[in-house]
Design goal:
Layout lengths: L4 E7 L2 E7 L4 H21 L5 H18 L6 H17 L4
Antiparallel strand pairs: 1-2
Length: 95
């Protein structure tokens, strides 16, 4: 059995205790950050829905991205690349 560690992740204002491989922890936390950002965007754009609706919409958006986005990058990778670009721009003094 592979060595795993327990971590607590937060999604939609709920905590989940999961076991992950240590080398995957950062990617999983980044994925949860991206998911929470998408949920927050949906909450702001579509009033009157409950958390279950937002989670379902987020899941549908993710699934759609997987079959329609041909850039070769998943949403977590896209977020990481954007953070790198922002850091480089800040270092170069470009906003």
């Amino acid at each position: 059995m592979d060595h795993t560690i327990p971590i607590t992740i937060w999604l939609a204002e709920r905590s989940y205790r999961i076991r992950v491989k240590p080398e995957e922890e950062q990617a999983i936390r980044q994925a949860m950050k991206v998911a929470d950002q998408r949920l927050a965007k949906l909450r702001n754009e579509i009033p009157g829905k409950d958390e279950q609706d937002f989670l379902a919409m987020c899941l549908m958006m993710y699934a759609t991205d997987q079959v329609t986005d041909h850039s070769g990058l998943n949403p977590v990778q896209q977020d990481t690349v954007q953070q790198m670009i922002d850091t480089i721009d800040n270092c170069l003094g470009q906003d």
